[in-house]
Amino acid sequence: MKQTFMSPDLNVYTNSSIAIIQFEGEPQVFQRPSSKGKQFQNVSMMIFQQLIMTKAGAMLGSKGLQPFTNPISIEMILTTLQPFQNIELEYVIKSVLDGLNKSVIQDDSLVVRAQCWLERATKRSPKTRIDITVSDIATNDAITFQMDIPPIQKVIAVPYDIGGALQLDPKFEQTLIDIENGILKDCGTIMNQYEICHMCFCTVDMSKDIDNLYLMYIRALRKSKLLDGTNNIGIGMYKRHVNAGEGRTIINLVSK
After folding, report:
1. Per-residue burial over 116-155, b = 16 or more CB atoms within 10 Å of its CB, e = otherwise
2. pLDDT tens for residues 201-234?
3. Cβ contacts of residue 192 below 8 Å, gap of 6+?
4. H-helix segments, the chain
5. Which of 19, 30, 162, 237 could cross-link with 14 by S-S, CB 3.0 to 4.6 Å?
């Protein structure tokens, strides 16, 4: 049975295989928590990002290409025997983008399309690997490379000082709560769980990083259980420019 719910800022459409959630207004960007002192970055994550930068940079050089300066599309396929519930694909994308930023891509705000897909490895080929393709949308130049190591998901830095704490800006934290409450209120009658999540961000400000836009909304979907955390096999994020007053965030949840 099809259902349509409406609130002042949120529209929802569902059927047996898809849910479409649309937030009206300019898409919001996730803000990292901050602390007064210095912060430690996760060492394993930094090593993984360095390997991404080295491997992608070598592939770029082998093709005689300079760092990409046009709108970018990125496709990732992660093949693993790891339990899917231990992998949050948005943080895989974020970690890879941070490795590509300023080296292979002039700035990660140039990324207007990013997808990451999970595939189950076989006992015959059990090794975890991630295949990554970076494409210049304007010129069709592209590089493809493979990492034969488990990806390290993006990890939030920790305070350097004993007793230090990370804190969210209060206004930003309230916005997160409003998004979660909106989804819980207007999507509370949806009984399905979905395995694939695509988000399209229609924005007047193309300098917003696509991964931080995605992080703003994905937490609410996971907390509401609309996204199946045990079998989230694919995510996609897309960014396109619109005129002032036309901003919106469109979330598509799909069953495989």
Report:
1. bbbeeeeeeeeeebbebebbbeeeebbbebebeebbbbbe
2. 999 999 999 999 999 999 889 888 888 878 889 9
3. 14, 16, 19, 226, 255
4. 43-62, 89-100, 170-186, 210-223
5. 19
